[in-house]
Amino acid sequence: FMTFRAHNIQIGEIFNQDKYFTLGAPTFTSRAGERLNEGQQLSIVANAQTAFWCTIVLSQFFNAFMCKTRVASVFKQGVFGNQVLNACGLVMIGIMVAIVYIPFLQPIFGTASHDNFWFWIPCLIAWVTLLLWNEGRKWVFRNYPESTFTKIFAW
Fold first, then answer.
1. Cα dist. 148→70, 73, 145, 151 in Å?
2. What is the mean pLDDT of residues 71-77?
3. How many CB atoms lie within 10 A of CB 16?
4. Rounded to a whole number, what is the distance in angstroms from the first to the last CA of the chain?
5. What's the CA gap between 3 and 14, in Å, rounded?
């Protein structure tokens, strides 16, 4: 949604808009008065799709490191000890960067390159949320092993 907001498009304006933001779309006029032609609309959608996809990929990348153990903190277990996980993470990030920044791959995957800092904010929010959840969960597991929370969320 941040991608649409960056173009002065309110969240409510994009729902139930079957004829806009697709191929052959007529000119879209936002509530702010900004007029967007078909190419601009498709560019915004590509940016939004890219932001969404990168947030998922990076969230899974961070989650893999945080969930290596059930109880030990990511700060105590170390991040780079598992060489296979590190290699897989680098390949995953490499593929993501290629799909986002190599021009001939962009139309295939419906992505667009980004040079705007705000694009990375959802990724950062997802990472911080995962970090807080996993570290909090592990702290409860270590300090209250018989709690209902531990019994529900421990595997």
1. 16, 20, 9, 5
2. 82
3. 7
4. 34
5. 12
